[in-house]
Specification:
Elements lengths: L15 E4 L4 E4 L2 E2 H7 L2 H9 L5 H20 L2 H7 L5 H10 L6 H23 L13 H10 L4 H13 L7 H10 L5 H12 L8 H11 L5 H10 L17 H13 L4 H21 L9 H12 L6 H23 L26
Helix pairs in contact: 2-3, 2-16, 3-6, 5-6, 5-10, 6-7, 6-16, 7-8, 8-13, 8-15, 8-16, 9-10, 9-16, 10-16, 11-15, 13-15
Bound molecules: acetyl coenzyme *A (ACO).
The site of acetyl coenzyme *A has 19 residues, from helix 15.
Length: 366
């Protein structure tokens, strides 16, 4: 048995490859550092969904298709907002995505991607007492998302948001993608796969980490408080959010992509960034001392938190925003699994009581 499925290869994929030893991420043949420069959201969707052989043409038709999908999904927003009152944003998003009608894999992919941004923007504005802004289907996806969130598609904010969404769009067989693939492996639909993916993403060991990263910075307060805070929390058996990874034995390459995006965007609070850098350095040193040779280092969530905070996103919305990017990967994997995969049905090792007279051989069965 491999607890946590450590080291188990569960599927063949042509979508992405995470190399934990060398700290690299390749998506459909591109290094992540190059991909965020060469691909906007539409081109990333076209690349992941393989809808068209010619990238430029695909990206143009993707802009039209995604715009139309945002328009379709916006019609559902008033009813969904009424239904989701009082819910945590990630739970509201899960409900909204689950409500997307099943049609065919291509349209479901467009619709769940559109729903993630339209609903998230409506929820975020609602939390600050502002009315939601309907999408403008003529705009590119990231620009329209920025406009729905902040009232205007400002260039620097749009670019920062788009870099974030593309950076997190796919990442190998992570927990939420595996969940999506298990659901798709039953020949279920893309909507169900993405709904399950959101459920898996929600946990603090996966996509729920960036909000707590900011809580950690707030609690630490200043440089003098870093080491005592870490010693106290690690001593209580807690984990440092934004550090460590099941696959990476060194720094997550997405951390540097997002750090560069933060520098380009221009942090709104230099003291915050200076404190974060000091926390990052101390965390790396402390974890290296406690777990020598394990290679616990900064993961994607640390600079996600700083970038999204600088852009002006409320920390309770960080995990739903992660979903708005990762939805591209979930849909791509679900479609790949439906097209090429086999029903996923592993075994479990039974450790409960046996009926009288039964031998232990029964325990090995699934
Ligand atoms: N802080 C403190 N200790 C840690 C951390 C951390 N961030 N990460 C791992 N460890 C410890 C573990 O507790 C374990 O100690 P033990 O042997 O005494 O039990 C040891 O290091 C080895 O752990 P791993 O096997 O490397 O950890 P695992 O693969 O189970 O967990 C995980 C990976 C969940 C990401 C973990 O590093 C963690 O909890 N990090 C904090 C949460 C976080 O940042 N999550 C986002 C991950 S990125 C993403 O999903 C998008």
């Amino acid at each position: 048995m491999s607890e946590g499925l450590d080291g188990v290869v569960a599927a063949e994929t042509s979508i992405s490859r995470v190399d934990g030893e060398n700290g690299t991420l390749i998506v459909r043949g591109y290094q992540i550092e190059d991909l965020v420069i060469s691909h906007d959201f539409e081109a990333m969707a076209a690349l992941l969904w393989r809808d068209d052989a010619e990238a430029g043409r695909a990206a143009r038709s993707m802009l039209v298709d995604l715009g139309a999908a945002r328009g379709r999904m916006a019609e559902r927003v008033p009813a969904l907002l009424a239904l989701c009152r009082g819910m945590e944003p990630i739970d509201a998003l899960r409900l909204a995505v689950a409500s997307v009608p099943c049609s065919n894999a291509k349209q479901e992919s467009l619709d769940v991607t559109a729903m993630a941004t339209v609903m998230l923007a409506a929820l975020l504005r609602g939390k600050s007492g502002e009315t939601w802004i309907a999408p403008d289907p003529s705009l590119a996806h990231a620009a329209d998302f920025c406009r729905m969130l902040f009232g205007a598609a400002e260039e620097d904010r749009t670019r920062a948001l788009e870099t974030y969404l593309v950076t997190v769009a796919d990442h190998g067989m992570n927990a939420s993608t595996f969940t999506a693939r298990v659901i798709a492996s039953t020949q279920s639909d893309v909507v169900s796969a993405v709904t399950g993916g959101i459920g898996a993403l929600k946990g603090p060991l996966h996509g729920g980490a960036p909000g707590p990263v900011l809580n950690m910075l707030d609690e630490i307060g200043g440089e003098a408080g870093i080491q005592p805070w870490m010693d106290r929390h690690l001593g209580d058996g807690e984990r440092l959010m934004g550090f460590g990874h099941r696959i990476y034995r060194r720094r997550d390459p997405r951390a540097d992509v997002l750090k560069a995006a933060l520098t380009r965007f221009g942090a709104r609070d230099d003291n915050r960034v200076a404190l974060a850098e000091a926390v990052e350095n101390t965390a790396r040193e402390t974890l290296a001392r406690r777990y020598p040779g394990r290679g616990l280092d900064t993961n994607v969530e640390f600079y996600t938190a700083l970038l999204l905070e600088a852009v002006g996103i409320d920390r309770r919305f960080f995990t739903p925003l992660f979903a708005a990017g990762r939805v591209l990967g979930w849909t791509a994997h679900a479609r790949e699994q439906i097209a090429t995969g086999r029903l996923m049905r592993p075994l479990s090792s039974y450790v409960g009581p046996l009926p009288e007279g039964e031998t232990v051989a029964l325990a090995a069965a699934g």
